Amino acid sequence: MTSFLEIPAIPGSLRQINRLTVLRLLRRFGPITKPALAEYSRISRPTISKLVDELEEQGLAECVGVAVPTPSGGKPGALYRFNAEGVRSAGIFLTVDAVRVALVNGNGRVSGSLERPLGQDRRPEPVINAIVETLQELLTSQQVSLAQLLGIGVGVPGLTSFATGVVHFAPHFPQWRDVPVRDLLKARLGSEVWVDNDCHVQALAERYFGAGQSCTDFVTVESGIGVSAAFYLQDTLYRGVGETAGEIGHMTIQEDGPLCECGNRGCWETLASTTWMVEQASGLALFSHSHDEMIEKLEPEVINTLAHTIFRAAQGGQADAIELVRQHAMHFGVGLAALINVLNPQRIIIWGDSINGGELFLETVRAVVQQRAMARPREMCSIIFSSFIQDVGVIGAASLVIDALFTHYQPTA
Asked: Do 153 and 189 have their domain in common?
């Protein structure tokens, strides 16, 4: 059994630092012998032996055989690795219209998931109730207890303080102001809980299990009803001094552009979101009469439905749809070019509804970046779709627990 501090361990606890070092090495290089761990880490062999034995006892390391005998004829050492199955966490991902929960192991594998729509009442209390009920339903179906979870991670679409677990503002949940989501869930569930912005958790999913594993500097960008991002820079998730970093959808692209929900004009997401694309489709022969009526009341679920209709039509060769997707991608590419110039990342990973635009969307984005970004940072950066499809949100939320494990894990006394 393991527990967590509420803040990362302060460098200075040598035992804690050694424990984290061994845990990380087991995950990165395992299967590996104790002598090899000592060589990599420069920690003494007796200390390594004791730490590995403790981790094995706690279910975080496992022995998987013995090494090949050396020519010198010494006794082959036992091989150890990080025990991903010994880590089970719950990922909860809140979207504008649904709550999705999943059980995830230490390698990011989803063993069970459940999604439930949110009702019309999206005040904090009903939404928290929906989260708790959906998680409990999943645990029951999987025959897993809360006590068996290492922790619970939650991704929320809004300005969130990771340190306090408070959601300060959520644009699609108008009555959410300074909601202590972490403490509310912790009181209801009795488990350790971490809460962060939806884009931040997606970046953690890519860092631990996806296209960010080989990068020290990458950006993940969500394109859908809104546009937002997360910055993994110098091998660290950058949250900003107020933990609000990533709201790039509200950087001004066109000074006299469309009015945004934030009150500004010409925000990037007013031009690069799927909302813009759906609004531009009004009156075109892409939709049935019932769809045209839907456009008059652009609720999130309506935007998602109509955006997918446009993407499917474009894939099918419909000229108007192809042009809409191309324009959507061009606006999106303008913003990415700015990010590349400013941050010089190795990779930009796109996720969200716009990946349904397929190669048409991606190649148009790349062409715009080729035209607009400065040559040196552009040549260093690849632009790709996330390899995660349906589960990216819940894997990302569960990655909050994984991140805690590899940054400030300590055993229960």
From this structure: yes
Q: Tokens in use for 287?
A: 């939709």
Rg (CA), the chain: 23
- 3-class secondary structure, 233: strand
| Contact residues for 408 (Cβ-Cβ < 8 A; gap 6+) | 4, 5, 7, 8, 9, 16, 20
The rounded distance, in Å, linking the Cα atoms of 287 and 260 is: 25
The residues that bridge with 99 in the sheet, in sequence order, are 94, 116
Please name which of 58, 8, 18 lies closest in space to residue 40, comparing C-alpha atoms: 18
Do 39 and 124 share a domain, yes or no?
A: no
Summarised one tens digit per residue, pLDDT across range 13-24 is: 777 788 888 988
* Size (the chain), residues: 413
The pTM is what? 0.83
Number of domains in the chain: 3
Closest CA to 236 of 28, 350, 380, 407: 407
| Residues 204, 202: Cα–Cα separation, whole Å | 5
- C-alpha closest to that of 184 among 154, 204, 158, 159: 154
* Residue 370 φ then ψ, to 5°: -60, -35
Tens of pLDDT, residues 238-251: 999 988 899 899 99
| DSSP per-residue letters across 277-334 | HHHHTTTSTTS-HHHHHHHTS--HHHHHHHHHHHHHHHHTT-HHHHHHHHHHHHHHHH
- Which domain, by its residues, includes 37? 2-85
